[in-house]
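The following record pairs a protein chain with its ligand, adenosine-5'-diphosphate.
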Amino acid sequence: MNKKTIRDIDVAGKRVLVRVDFNVPLDANQHITDDTRIAAALPTIDYLLAHGAAVILMSHLGRPDGKVVEKMRMAPVAQRLSELLHRPVQTTTESIGPAVATQAQALQAGEVLLLENLRFHKEEEKNDTDFAHQLATLGDLYVNDAFGTAHRAHASTEGVTRYLPGVAGFLVEKEINFLGTALEQPKRPFIAIVGGAKVSDKIAVLERLLEMADGLLIGGGMANTFLAAEGYEIGDSLFEESKVKTARALIDKAHEKKIGLHLPSDVVIADRFAADAEHKNVPSNQVPKGWRILDIGPATIADFRAVLQDAQTIVWNGTLGVAEMAAFAQGTNAMIELLAQRTSEGATTIIGGGDSAAAVEQAGAAHKMTHVSTGGGASLEFMEGRVLPGVAALQDQ
Ligand code: ADP
Ligand code: MG
């Protein structure tokens, strides 16, 4: 990565303002159901504290849309963070203002303050100059470790860098290094697996992967549009009529470039979109009317396994079926198992995408992969080759 990191600056005695991604899932009682994102920021926070900094953390949580929403306060996050850090974490009831400024001024080396939810202010997402300036006055230095929001130019990710010198935290560094190296200098063969709901979400990434990968495996809802482009009947499956031409063009391009583009040869179909729907396995070209494709089938899993057998780099974005429903999670779970195995055999495996990462976490297999990205949309945009504004705004090495 060509950006400065916290290793490159002197933080001793400084108040360091750190944008983290603490946007964790909460249940109805505001209990954190998955603290992966909090844990992912610990290396940066621990490093800053160990090097004599006072740490001021800021994040958004949920989508309060510019208003104070009691259920989206940062308090439960502060509590969990305190447990993980084994030290107190101070909180505020605001993210800017005189009281916050006073509290930040009083913060001593080794102390931690977590600001209230940034998105209680509509100015955050609007990248408002004054709001960004008020945040910036709280610290002497700025660190961005919120990879999950780095694709957005918000006040706390981009605006603040107009007033404070900014460097990357360890999570941002790790994400950029893993995703960047996998895509730009992959050990070959390099095989990409792309699934998920819609072709329209993934066109840019498919096009870029066709430039770089040696093979492309396609599953999930978006495979349906490719099957339609091949002229198959797909019943009531999710499909994007307006993207059939795009799918056709991608198939032709893969052919031209002699890159294997693999579509599901068989699928699991259901009589309705429900966890307890009646379901069965059929070849992809034999989907009866009134049925819908919700997962890849066992023959496809075997095809995909064969392609991945000698892959040295595997990048995966998008679940291969409706993995939220156990009956239609088989393709996704088989792929998780296979990637864990390939990792143990020395392949580099990178998983990006919120739902795919969640499926890997849920299977308890995250530690068996080379890297599971914490940034859903951000990792997709990075894989598309786009500049992430929250990273671009940091100081160059
Ligand atoms: P990621 O978050 O990993 O990038 P996406 O958001 O693109 O993945 O896609 C995941 C979504 O795709 C899930 O909600 C899943 O239910 C849906 N999906 C996958 N396969 C199908 C299918 N065959 N039909 C309908 N929805 C599907
Ligand atoms: Mg998703």
